[in-house]
Write a structure and sequence with these properties.
The chain has 401 residues and is α/β, with parallel strands linked by helices. It is 41% helix and 12% strand. Helix 4 runs parallel beside helix 11. It starts with 10 loop residues before the first helix and ends with a helix.
């Protein structure tokens, strides 16, 4: 008898699903490159250039030989200090620089946060719909995602009762995201405080992703959990970054803020994983967080205009239900009323089917709800030009009419 061949890919890594949002974006770009007039609603990426002052700071940093060497693993001291100042300025959360770790984008902060506090078998409550990376990062830490679903009728926001019903003796951590990717939902200060107090009373850790903090509309405000419930600060990790606010997705600078012992543990991990973030990029981030928010405000006004367009045009399509998103730059329509219809000779039964129909018949790329939880939904980013937005939505309406 021959010996069985060893596995080529480890079980742990083999279980990871590709990022669905990046996969849709890649497919749309490939079709465009092949000459198809595809309009992509897939990527969560501002369509604006990084503000000139930030680029100029990076150019100056690139010319400085001090930035041609390994940076400190935890981040440049001046950037950690600036983020502490920014945290107080923007969120009212007073911290010290030793509580800040600079990471290679927000995704690394997500991964390291769960890696630092989750043990194998620990359960993490994940409000659903969720961003596609969260469950994968939890699984890589050995944790178990327990999804807590809230649909369009609840504005995609979970309640304390929902969370308590999902809690078990194995629950150690709550994930909290407001403003939300993928839904654009924003929890009110009162809702945030109630959930934070519940987590504190339950003795849970909280990982709160605040990367969309500046992208809120209609008078909504993004409330930081440890500000709403100060007693929670010792068990809270706050995630952030420059990508969304300053149109810096390609610069790869994020951060995590937490208790010093957790930040030290995550820094130890990062020292082996990637070491420090490129110094030039950190100087660009330093210019961003210490500079004015004028460019960010201009982008937010453009997103707000597009938000009104996408909400009004999607609501004109029969069978679609769409709560008004109050944050980020996503619309998350419930399309269950469209499923099962004859659309150009095809009857889609899932939102993945529907996304395939829209790509084929409308040459529009959207991300199906399966990437974020249950089927029956689509995520459309409105971080694209006004003309492409209107054209893409018109194509969708024509195909679904």
């Amino acid at each position: 008898m021959g010996h069985a061949l060893p596995r080529r890919i480890s079980t742990r890594i083999g279980a990871i699903a590709e990022s669905a949002t990046l996969a849709v974006d890649a497919k749309a770009k490939a079709l465009k490159a092949a000459g198809h007039p595809v309009i992509g609603f897939g990527a969560g990426e501002p369509d604006f250039p990084t503000p000139a002052a930030i680029v100029d700071a990076a150019i100056a940093a690139a010319r400085d030989p001090r930035n041609h060497h390994y940076p400190p693993t935890a981040g440049l001291p001046e950037l950690r200090e600036a983020i502490a100042v920014k945290s107080l300025r923007d969120a009212g959360y007073g911290i010290v620089p030793s509580q800040v770790l600079i990471t290679n984008g927000g995704k690394q902060a997500v991964y390291q946060a769960f890696a630092a506090i989750v043990d194998p078998g620990d359960e993490v409550l994940v409000p659903t719909p969720y961003w596609t990376t969260y469950p994968e990062a939890i699984a890589l830490a050995g944790g178990v995602s327990v999804t807590v679903f809230a649909g369009a009728d609840a504005g995609y926001k979970v309640s304390v009762a929902d969370l308590e019903a999902a809690r078990s003796p194995r629950t150690t951590t709550l994930l909290f995201v407001s403003p939300s990717n993928p839904t654009g939902a924003v929890y009110t200060p009162e809702e945030t405080a109630a959930i934070g107090q519940w987590a504190a009373d339950a003795g849970l850790w909280v990982v709160t992703d605040e990367i969309y903090e500046h992208l809120v509309y209609d008078g909504a405000s993004a409330t930081s959990l440890p500000v709403a419930v100060p007693e929670l600060a010792e068990r809270t990790i706050v995630l952030g970054g420059v990508a969304k606010t300053y149109a810096m997705t390609g610069w790869r600078v994020g951060w995590m803020i937490g208790p010093p012992d957790v930040v030290k543990a995550a820094t130890n991990l990062q020292s082996h994983l990637t070491s420090g973030v490129a110094g030039v990029c950190q100087h660009a981030a330093l210019a961003a967080v210490t500079g004015p928010l004028d460019a960010a405000d201009a982008m937010r006004h453009a997103f707000d205009r597009r938000r009104h367009t996408i909400v009004s045009m999607l609501r004109e399509i029969g069978g679609i239900i769409l709560p008004t998103p109050q944050g980020a730059f996503y619309a998350y329509p419930d399309v269950s009323g469209v499923l099962g219809r004859d659309i150009g000779g095809v009857r889609p039964h899932t939102s993945a089917d529907l996304a395939a129909v829209l790509l084929d018949q409308a040459e529009v790329a959207v991300v199906p709800g399966e990437a974020f939880g249950p089927s029956g939904y689509l995520r459309l980013s409105y971080a694209l030009s006004d003309d492409d937005l209107a054209e893409g939505l018109s194509r969708i309406a024509t195909v679904l009419a």
